[in-house]
Amino acid sequence: MSSSSPASLLEVELPPDRPPILHVDPPGDPAGWAAGHRDALRGQVTEHGALLVRGLGLRDTGQVGAVFAGLTDGLMTEREAFAPRQSHGPGLYSSAAWPDNQPMCMHHELSYRLEVPGLMLFACLSAPDQGGATAVADAERMLQALPATLTERFEREGWLLTRSYNDEIGASLEESFGTDDHAAVEHYCLTHAIEFAWQPDGSLRTRQRRSAVVRHPGTGRRCWFNQIAFLNEWTLAPEVREYLVDVYGADGLPFNTRFGDGSPIGEDVIQLINSTYEEHTRREPWQPGDLMLVDNIRTAHSREAFSGERRVLVGMAEPQRLPDSDPTPEVSQR
Questions:
Q1: pTM higher than 0.90 for the full model?
Q2: Is the Cβ–Cβ distance between 241 and 234 less than 8 Å?
């Protein structure tokens, strides 16, 4: 099955259970090709929510950076990262550091920030032996598939992200905020609606409430847009959760999520969200040289467990301040 439109002028395959795929002949200049087809490629992302481009033959970070630059008006600097990344230049990053044998469940990148990337860009330089796909799921369909009683509560209350920064798990202060200076971190929190509390040992705990359902800035359609399940304790492997609770305590986990009113989210709710995501997941194994574009608000993405060497570069673009995602927490320094 294929799709074409006057706006895109590209023949895109729409295989069931896989993201839309565009096969191209290897261009001599991938960056020039990408810049020349920018509007057509972006048109396909607007139409389908995601697009995998196969055949570009991307080989190194310089090439990927040039392609990303040709497809955007500039890449974002990541802030509030939940896991470390290696930088390969302004706005060009490695995949987030996460155990190979643990999946990164479906989520919308940085959905807990006030300003979120509207577009995600991925490029595969080395494909793993098994697994490791960057799978996608439609956020509108997710909202429709989840029980109305649950989505209505989250839409009414929002969701709460709690974080405890330490030197062992997740991003450090400097990796997350771009600095480890306490005054600068406090200023960032105060200007980004994040509650913060310095602990006796000098570590930092934060809380931020965000909307779980937002309207897409382009279509106006309501989307299930959050990281409620991915960053919740019940998504962790049982042995990992037990270890973290034992070391840091139930209230000191590196990250956790709650209902917007602060009450705990049960394991059954997290299992329901993750199983519903699985029902709507589309996946295609990476091949070296692949490029993938994802509408970060309309489409969730994941990183599946893998074995072998996996090298995928990431860029974030089109910052969006969603008008209905502004939280109203009590900001304090307690």
A1: yes
A2: yes
